[in-house]
Amino acid sequence: MNYTQAIVSGFINVVNFNGRASRSENNCWLLFILSIQIFAVLLDPPEPKLVNSSPPVELDIPLDVDEGQNYEYDPMGSRLFSFLYFLLLLPTTSLAVRRFHDIGKSGWNILWPFTIIGAIPYYYWICFVKGDSEKNEYGDNPLDKKINSNHRLGNDD
């Protein structure tokens, strides 16, 4: 699946938590999300927040900020970033569930990042593990050319 097909599939399957999603679809979608988020922060930069810590860390600070203080830039302080984040949360979640289905795991594995160490296996599974090459309990292989061409043509042979 190429980049454009992955983005279109992500928007078409917004609330589809059944079936499977390929590794290429997931990785292209994550790249799309990252580029959108970077673009949003560049268009609408967040306001700096004062961080109380000592000793002061020397950073390249804008001229309107006091140099004796430490500042933090939280991307959620950008209204555009926050809007896009919540807008793309549902399609990203559904894609992650379908990606876990592709490797033969339950969609409930998306809860792993809520544990301390769980983010490491979560991103390993959805980004690097190859999906099942045959049909599994969650559906057909999304990369199988014969199955995909039959569904597009309306043939259920």
Structure description:
By secondary structure, the chain is mainly α. A two-stranded antiparallel ribbon has the order 1-2. 46% of the residues lie in helices and 4% in strands. The longest helix is centred in the N-terminal third of the chain and has 21 residues, at 23-43. It contains six helices and two strands; from the N terminus they run ααββαααα. The chain has helices spanning 3-12, 23-43, 79-87, 89-102, 119-127, 145-153; strands spanning 49-51, 70-72. Helix 1 (3-12) packs across helix 2 (23-43), helix 2 packs antiparallel against helix 3 (79-87) and helix 2 (23-43) runs antiparallel to helix 4 (89-102). Mean pLDDT is 82; it is low at 149-157.
- Structural shape: elongated
Overall number of strands: 2
For the residues shown, what is the average pLDDT? Answer: 82
- Please give the oligomerization state of what you see: single chain
Low-confidence region ranges: 149-157
Calculate Rg over CA atoms.
20 Å
What's the tally of helices? 6
Q: How widely separated are the two ends?
A: 23 Å
Strand content: under 5%
What is the H/E string?
A: HHEEHHHH
Helical content band: 40-55%
Report strand order across the widest sheet: 1-2
Structural class designation: mainly alpha
Largest sheet: 2 strands, antiparallel
List keywords for this structure.
6 helices, mainly alpha, 46% helix, two-stranded antiparallel sheet
Helix-strand blueprint:
Layout: H1 3-12, H2 23-43, E1 49-51, E2 70-72, H3 79-87, H4 89-102, H5 119-127, H6 145-153
Antiparallel strand pairs: 1-2
Helix pairs in contact: 1-2, 2-3, 2-4
